[in-house]
Design goal:
- The chain has one domain: Jelly Rolls.
- Helices cover 8% and strands 45% of the residues.
- A four-stranded antiparallel sheet has the order 1-8-3-6. Strands 2-7-4-5 form a four-stranded antiparallel sheet, with no helix packed on it.
- It is elongated and about 60 Å long.
Length: 141
């Protein structure tokens, strides 16, 4: 059995210690929550669900929705990468929850926003109808 340290603990324990980014260690988590009521929203549409400030680090994203349609998928990203956080996931059952922490792209946990950025939920597969609620958790340095 091994006893190892992750990056920030290694840096803190170093001599001299290396300060961690405040967005990674002891940062305050902020929340941006929003809801959209889709009514025959065409595949390939995007829904702006949050606007994050420059320097924000995305900690988690939760998207919960009604059964939106038999072959409707949702992806979560931004204008530069439409599935940066969560790749296209079927949303054909009611009250389905997808999140960065359980369904997302591992490299996007803690992703730092370079400039003011909108978080987008993108539809695909078919026309979507139903409630889509999102919560974006982030820290700022």
């Amino acid at each position: 059995m091994a006893s190892v340290k992750a990056t920030n603990i290694t840096n803190i324990d170093a001599s001299p210690s290396v300060l961690a980014n405040a967005g990674d260690v002891h940062g305050s988590v902020r929340v941006f929550k929003d809801t959209y009521e889709a009514s025959s929203l065409g595949a390939g549409s995007d829904i702006t669900v949050a606007r994050l400030p420059k320097g924000a680090r995305v900690v988690d994203i939760h998207v919960k929705a009604d059964a939106l349609g038999g072959s409707v998928t949702l992806a979560v990203g931004d204008s530069a990468d439409p599935d940066r956080y969560i790749t296209a996931t079927a949303m054909n059952t009611g009250n389905k929850l997808i999140s960065l922490s359980s369904d997302g792209v591992i490299g996007s946990i803690g992703y730092e926003i370079g400039d003011v950025t909108d978080i987008l939920v993108t539809t695909a597969g078919a026309t979507a109808s139903g409630t889509i609620t999102s919560v974006v958790y982030y820290t700022v340095s």
